[in-house]
Request: fold
Amino acid sequence: MDLNYERKNIYKNCSKQDLQNIFDFCEGYKDFLNKGKTEREACAYAVKLCEENGYKPFTFAEKLKVGDKRYFLNRDKSIFIVKIGTEDIEKEGVKIMAAHVDSPRLDLKPNPLYEDAEIAYLKTHYYGGIKKYQWTTIPLALHGVVMLRGGKKMQVCVGEDESDPVFCITDILPHLSAEQNAKPIATAISGEALNAMVGGVYDSEDEENSSVKNAILKLLNQKYGITEVDFQCSELCFVPAGVARDVGFDKAFLSSYGHDDKVCAYPELKAILDSDDTHTVIAVFADKEETGSDGVTGMQSRVFSDVLNTVCASLNANPMQVRYKSKCISADVNAGYDPHFAEAYEKRNSAYLSCGVDVSKYTGSRGKGGTSDANAELVAYFRDLFDDNGVVWQIGEIGKIDVGGGGTVAKFIANMGIDTLDIGVAVLSMHAPYEIVSKADVYEIYKAMLVFCNGKN
Ligand code: MN
Ligand code: MN
Reply:
């Protein structure tokens, strides 16, 4: 009997085969990261994988039955993947996994295009919690959609192909930085300074109205059929350009934009697709988590309960009873312990890279403000489930008390009367353009989700 609790590093005493499984799984994850940088792209990726695995589009009018596999794509920006199992959902409940697929980024303002000093720029309004200085002097790609008059939707993705140009936000040179250097880091770069360079060539065919801005508009019109007003009916954003890369001589870690929260979304998607047919499972890709989970595609939207109610009604189950019996993994990242900033962490209660899935009993800030704080009974359920199935897990809080804090979608699902626990992956440099996770943890959360889908209630 182990009287002491000890954290376990997965890479320590890891067999060659286990290491191979970890690395193989992460190749698939890299593909998801590279092709799913925005919530729309991540949902499109999920739809493709769902359809390849026999899932069909869901409608609220449909009566679902045992064995049905459906996905509900909510306005292209969030998705609910539903698998009806053989077990009675009034007795067994539904297994729910909810990750988010929006990540911090720079959205374009509605009127973004202007010219200054004979350079064309696009103005941005940052989305989510970012450290603004990190978004200057890095290559950026433009992703999103523009709605043309009449309902035509133009997909935009510039800066990811090797032959594509990229975009860039400038910073002041160190020679002239005396004033900036004296500022607190939060104000060193202002939100209004996050304007990306997008052009500098004049339109030689139009000498009278010649300007760089007009030349860019002409170029955009030729490529996408858009005019300046169409920016107002668009969702375009700058994200870091480039692909996920292995980190370290031994490739133990993986660096990418958007680990928060694709690192939970991808394993969740794989887990529901790989799970057996006994339990009813719903996997959620939520949008708008980074701005508070509001809106029609956020986790606070009624759409989730609409989907759950449709499942209950189809199976002639009482929705209140089903919610009471259901369990949910709120799958989101947590702050990984970073020895360079040790003062922000409480060593005994932090999540460490490569030490397995991170269980957070509660999130929030100050005196646990704004958290659902899972019951001991629920934490114990997952402890037993993970221990019995060889899933490596650890428990972690986000940093020291009163240093900061954070939240997830957990409370919105718990508020519906569903037992919900935060389980995720430890991340370094969270919300930076290039975040880092341990590949071992990525594979471990897949294993955790799979045993959750297949395990008894
Ligand atoms: Mn997150
Ligand atoms: Mn986040």
Q: What stands out?
A: The chain has a mean pLDDT of 97. The longest strand covers residues 105-116. The CA atoms of residues 179 and 259 lie 34 Å apart.
